[in-house]
Every structure is written in C-alpha cells, then in structure tokens.
Structures
1.
Amino acid sequence: FCRWNCRVDRTQEKKVGTCQLGKTSRVSTYFHHMGEELPIRGRKGSGTIFFTSCNMRCGFCQNGDISKDKDNGIIVSPRQLALMMWELRVEGCHNINLVGGEPTMHLHTIMEAITYLDNIKPTTEELQYIWSVKSDYFFTYRRNFSEATYQGMLNVPILWNSNMFMSLETLYILREVVDIWLPDFKFGNDKCSIRLARTPWYWETVTRNHKLIYDWGEDIIIRHLVMPNHVECCTKPI
C-alpha cells in the first residue's frame, strides 16, 4: 500500500512493517469536524474518521497519540466502518474525511466499506459499538436522508486526507473512489524528511503523487506546514 513496500504479509500477523499493523483496522474517533478548511467543513462539518497508526514518524505530529499507538480506538470491520460513514453523512456532514494517523494502510478495509454504503440498515447493537468512539456523541444531529441521497441512493463524497507517502498502485485504486484530495506536503528534500520524520524517498514519492493527481484534473487542496528554520530548505522548494 505505501512507499516502504516492506513486503510483510499482514494477514499472517507474525511480522509487522513500519505501520505496525496486522490485518484489522482500528478507528480512534469519528465526528463532525468543524476545524478543517472552509470549503471542506462547510456549515455542518466534515465527517472525519481518524484511523490509528502511520507510515511516517514525524516528531511534530499533532495526532501523535493516534499515529504512534497502533492499539488506539476500536477494531472496525468494513461494515462497521461503513456505518460510521453512513451516520456522518445522514447527519449532514458534507463529505467523509478519511485521515489518521494515516488512512493508506487501511485501504483494504476502506474499499470494502464503500461497497456497503448503497444498502445499509444499521442495528441498535452495531450503532452502540461504534458510538463508543464518536467524539460528538452527546450532540444531537437530525438525520436528513433527503440531503444525503441522490436519485434514491446514498451520495457520499469521499475525501482523502493523507501524507501521500503511498504507492502508485494505491493511488490508482483511490482514483476510482476519491472525490476530494486533502494531502500534506511537509518537506522540500529527503534530508529533512529523514531527520524529522525518519522517512526516506519522501521528495520523489510525494511530488510524483501530487503531480499525478493534478494531471488527472482532480479537486485538491494541498496543506503545507511552514516550520521554523525550514523556509529555505522546505517551504521554498515546495
């Protein structure tokens, strides 16, 4: 899935790669996110789902409790993940924002979850399980199915919120399902990415992926973190 190409068979759960994950996916929390960029959050928020773990080791990570703890949150099946997406959408969220940590390593769960969205009827028990990590559970959101459907089908814009340190294979799979791209662009060279995030091949990988999305004509908002003493080496090259 990601650029490391560690060749670990995660289904066997005997060895782990950089992400430290096995075959299951975990969600730390999900909620109506009003802190995203304005075109994304709109009036009712971006329906954000935070996956655990990451394939980078940024020393400045604002979600370090999620990205560095592979056991954070709850285990979710593809159907349970689909229920989170469904609930956020019918509660008025403008999109489903897949983030983390990093969502790339959870691609297998995400792709299968999307297949459940057209015809999903949650049970009370299923909802009670996922509510255990719903950060805004105590807020009341009116479910409006008419705003969440188009021609009788659930309409779920998918937003990919990622460090973009992924393989080409992953990018081509995502092209079929992602509607909005919200990628990070952190470092202007590999020296800084290795020192601050213990991540080689950063520049070549991320520039390639950003360029490809741009060439496809996709909707994309690029985030760049301007860091102290990294204006010349990172900000200006980016």
Note: The mean pLDDT is 95.
2.
Amino acid sequence: MGDYRTLNRTILAKVEGTSGTDASATVGSNAVLGENPQTTPGIGTLNTNEVTGALDARAPIPGGGPGNHSMLVNLHGSGAGGTAPEWDPYLQACGFAGANLAADLTGTASAGAAGTITLADATGVTIGQVIVTTGGTGAGQTRVITGLATLVASVYPNWTVTPDATTTYAVKASETYAPASASLVTASIYDYFHSSSGANSELRKVLGWAGGAAFTLPVGGIAQAQFTGQGKWTTPANVAHPGAATFQAQRPVAFMGADISLDSVATKFNQLTFDCGNQVQAAPDPSDTYGIDVGGITRRQINGR
C-alpha cells in the first residue's frame, strides 16, 4: 500500500434502505463517473489548558466529526428512456425525488389549444417530460410539458399547428427530478484508492451521506453538477481490488441547440448556474465511532444567476 494514484480510483454511490446502514454498493451496478472526488474525515482536535510547569501546551486530543464527500459530475442521461442516470443516488441524497415513466405513453388527444393538449391518459405524466405529436393534425412537433391539470397538459413553446381530436401523441419515456421535502433518503459512498500493483485498494466509506447540488450550464460547454455533503465516517480499510467498474455508455453533450425559457420568456445567456441551497447537518451521536450520526437536509433555499 502507499503508492496510490489520484485518478486510479473508483467511486460508488447507492441509496440506502435505512439511513446509515451500508447499502453494499458494487462496481457492476453503482459506479459513478466524476471529477475531483474528495472523501475526507472532518475529525476535529480538542485543545486543553492544563498547567504543565512550562509555557508549552499539551498536544491536542483527536475529536469526533463527520465524513465529508464531494464530487463534480458531467451531466448525461442513461442512454435509455425511463432509466435513471448513474448519478441518480447523488440527486436523491441531495433532496430530489425521481418520477419514472418507464415506457412511452401514447394516445389520441381529445382537444388542443395554442399551448395545451388534452391527453387520453395522464398516468405517470409530470412537468418536465417531452411530448411528441406523432400523427393527425400538427404531427411532428416536440414540446416540453410545463403544467398538468387533470388531463390538460400545458406545453412550451406553443404549438406551431394546434392539435385537435385527430392528433396522436407520445409522452416520451423518461426519468425526471424535482426537489422534495418528504421521504428523503441518504446514500452510501465508496471511494476506492487503487494501488499501482492492482492487487489491493484503500476504501474510504461514508454512510448516511446527504448533500447539496450546484448546477452549471455553460453555453458550448458541458453541463455539470457539484455535489457536496456529509455523513458518518468509517475507518479506511485495506481491501482487495473490487474489479473493473461498469459505467453507462452515454457521454455528455455540449449545452447548445436548446430553446431556453425563463419564466416563459425566451432567453439568451453565456452561462446559467443554480444551487439547490441545501443546509446539511450531521447530528451528534455518542454511540457512533466518531460521534456523528447520518447527514440530513434541514433547509433549502434555491438560488441562481
């Protein structure tokens, strides 16, 4: 051990069934590609004012603290509609709830207007999904669903040709996310530092990890998310090399060719940034090895520029 390389690492993330209980992540199912991962203990030091008979203070005493983990992820889909991206555990542990539409939802509209379409069935439909008109009046238009009232879906931008009762459509299979305030989860984070020999690794593990996410969308560049949070630190261990990681084949694409609307106003910009503004706290726990319980989101204040 001891001859580790910065890029010779593997990061795994998996949502926990019970917060703080190891989710048993594997390289075959839970690997996440990311940049500049940081997994470090937040162990503090305790100073004393004991009189020593000299001017020198006694050495500080190691204290407790959380496990800190952060990583930058280049945003990309899974490559298959209705399948979550590999960085889904980070989103969930940062307070986002996923809505899954496993397969295209097809049907024939019963009516349409300039910016709406009345669906035959809205099961699994939510804001942010994509709808495509596939036949009849106004076929071949692609729009984003921005609102839903029973069966009436609002879209952006308005239709070029207004659909009617002859229009067929498909709401495309997808995994969409929105901030949540209930049923929040935590994740187990594994950070393997591999030795150059390839035989063994140092495993740094944070359990009960919760965090915040800051997104950056630069025009002509790669959209990214910076995930930062904390949980329960576990003592690093010398383990066998876990094997080659399996990653999703889909690669990021440059952020361009998009029809951007901010509050229904067509908008141009050089770069869009927004932060979910989570406040994360790991409460004290005297029964834990390092005195800290799982991480938890206590407040959210979304901001951006």
Note: The mean pLDDT is 93.
3.
Amino acid sequence: RKGPAAGRACPAAAFYRRAAIEEAGLFGESFGSHYEDVDLGFRLTLLGWRTVYEPGSVCRHRCATSYGELSHTRLFNSARNSEVVFFSCMPGRLLVKYFLWHLAALAAQACLRLRQGRLAAFVAGKLEFIGRLPSVLRRRRAIQARRRIDVGQLASLMDGNWVRHVAATK
C-alpha cells in the first residue's frame, strides 16, 4: 500500500510469511521497543516482499500502554531507533535526496518535545544513536548489500508527504 507506512504493518495486526521472516530476520533486538516494526517492514520491502492491506480487517490496539505516550523510555527509544532505521535502511540515493527533509522533521520534532517539556529524552535518544553510529553503518552495509528492490520502485512506494507525518509524530 502507498502511504507513510508503505511496506510496514503494525505487528499487533500483522501476519508474515515464514519465508519472509527467515530471509529478513526477526525484530532487531537492539531496538528494545519502538520502530522495530518499521525496521522489519523496511527490510522486507528492500528484499522485494510486499505488504498486503485488508481494509475489511479490524484490530484494536492501544499504542504506548507499556511505557506511556510521553514517557522518557518511549521518547528516548523512538528518537534513537528512528535514526537507526533511516540511516541503515534508506538506500544511499534516497538518503541524500531526503536528508535535508529529515533534518527539517527533526527540528519540528525537537520543537514539539520542547513544548511538551520532553526535549531531554529526545536529545538523549539522538545522542545514543550517534554513539551507535559505527554499528549502524555496519548494519547499513549488510542491509544494502542484500537489497533487491530498485531505488525507483522504493521511491514510488513512499508517500511524498512523509516528512509531515514524521514531524507530526506524537
């Protein structure tokens, strides 16, 4: 499906083919929580697997109930893990294309966290990402080496307004 979540599904309501999971691997253990589903979906998409959306299905899932919507843990993990996904899964050509938009989304998110009085957790997550950069770059090389989808195909799956969606993240 096309949209900000193209190629990904909420794991609370997703079914995966065994062959897909065997090929892509499971959720990344280093994520802890938050964005591990985005990472898995992105890796599956890069390997050529597709997401099928069933509009007649119904799933009721309360997000952020484990930690709380604005808890330090949730915001820290989200801030760190979103960077891990962006820098390890985004193909180089698209990484360059969207880098300035990514920075704009980060600035908008930082402003939101400041207004919420939660900037410390956001900044701590980003700093933790920087500390993990060597391992993220190794991960990136491994993921990109296995990529089977053409960059143009991936770009066509992405919502052109994804930055707005990211910037507006709660």
Note: DSSP finds eight helices and no strands in the chain.
4.
Amino acid sequence: LKFVSAGLRGEHKVHIAAMLKPIDRTVRSSLQIVAVFLSFGLVGLLTSYVVGGVLAALCGVYFLSVGFERPKPYHFRRITSYAQYAWLGKLSSRAFSAMDTVVLGVFVSSSFIGYYEAAWNLASMLAIFGVAISQALFPEMSQVSSEGDTEQVGDLVTDALSYTGLFLIPGFVGSLLVGDLVLRVYGGEFDQAMSVLVILVVARLVYEYGNQFITGLNALDRPDIAFRVNGVFVITNIVLNVGLVAAMGWIGAAIATGTSAVIATLLAYIKFNRLVSIELPLMEIGNQFSAASGMGIFILTCREVLP
C-alpha cells in the first residue's frame, strides 16, 4: 500500500494517494466489526487487516499509469544513495512526536503523561494542514528541480510557508484563551495541561515551518543536508528533554520540544537559503496573526459574558 501510494505521489496524483488510507481503514474496520460479531476471533481481525490493505492497494494500482519493470543496477545505486540519508527524516519525526513522552516516563507520574499526551494530540491535530501541503507540493518541487528550475522550488516553498500556519496560528490564539475548556473534554483535571498545550502548539507551528525547508532540500536532491539538519534536531531534542524534564518536569518536555524545533528550523532555513534564494512570506503570516488576534478579541469578550 505504501509503495503504491508513493508511486501515485510521484505521478502527481496526491489526491488519489490520499484516499487509499481511508479506504484501507474503512474496509478493515467494517470487516473487523463483522468478524467480532461472527466470533472469528484473532484470525478474523488479522484477515480483515490484510484484506483492507490489499483492496486499497489494488485501487491505487488502477490509477497508476506507469507499468512494472525489472529494476536495473543504477536504480539500486540511486535508491541506496538517497536512503542512506533519508532514514533519519523518519527518525526525526518519531523523535519529535515521542521523545518527550519517553523521557517523561522516567521522571514523572503516569497521570502527567496522560495530560501531556492529550495536549500533544490537540496540537498535532492543528498541524494537519501543514503536513498536507508538504506532501502535496513535494512531487512538484522534485520535478521542477530535476528540470533545473531551482528558483521555482524556492517559490513553491514560499507558497507552502504562506499556508502552513493556517490552522496552527489561530490554534495558538485559541489555546491561549480557551485551551483549558477544550482540554476538559478529556476530563476536568486535564485543564492543568493548558500551559503545555500552548507551548506545544508553538512547537508544532515552528516544526512545520522547518519541515517545508526540509521538503525543499529533499526536492533539490540534497538529502545529505537534510540529514545533517535532522541529526541536529534529534540530538538537541534528546539532550534538552533529558535536561529540562529533570529540572522542570513536564513543562520542561514541552519547552525542550519547542526549543529543538526552533534550532532545527533556523538551521534548515539557512541551509536552504544558501542553495535557493527565498523570500519569506512575512506579509501573509502577519495577516494570519492579525486575523487570529481579531478572533481572539471576540472569543475573550464572549468568555467574559457567557457561561
């Protein structure tokens, strides 16, 4: 399924690739519910898992326009030369999403980890638009880069930066003003994670901006530079999490995540800007903050007068 999705994205059919996972989940869940009612047990659950993946992959193959060919030696060389750097990108993403929780497990009680995870889930939900932009624009960036039009890659990264904060910026203002109310959905005691939520939303915002530069570096066929940036992020994230959690508790985990994201984003911007001159969309980002501030004033007023 992942292989077919990658092929579709390479053909610029990102909209079709995006539908495969929902198809997989829908078919899998439906069959698993039926399997449970029919008392098929673990075999039924696992079979449903396989059937869902196979059906989704077949749907993707239908829309693939390229055929299957026997790979040649230079294909393996090119894949190997890219993969030796690209693997750290996955590790970096995993470290960003899980390292703080792992370190928290050593220093704080399980209840605080639950509060922290609730805040993290809310912050991650707001990042969905930036992630979608990165996945959608990468094939286009890669194609224009292979054609030698590196300036167009810079323009596409600028466009990505313009819209990355579309949910996260108002989400930041909202978390400041009503974050405690939203967290109470998980339970009354979860509102104490409000300060963590605010910091994590900022961390997600900065990280997603940095991710656009990383995507641009990979599109320029410079996974070696992206590798170094991701390496700095992983090391910084580990060191800061251990140090700050030990000193400050769960607030330290959020600060460590945000600080490491800032460092990695600045480094990614510097590295990318050396390859391609880029104009930061400060006006567009400023407009989003202005609109979010107007929303914040209205929400603050409502919170003062409404139950």
Note: The mean pLDDT is 86.
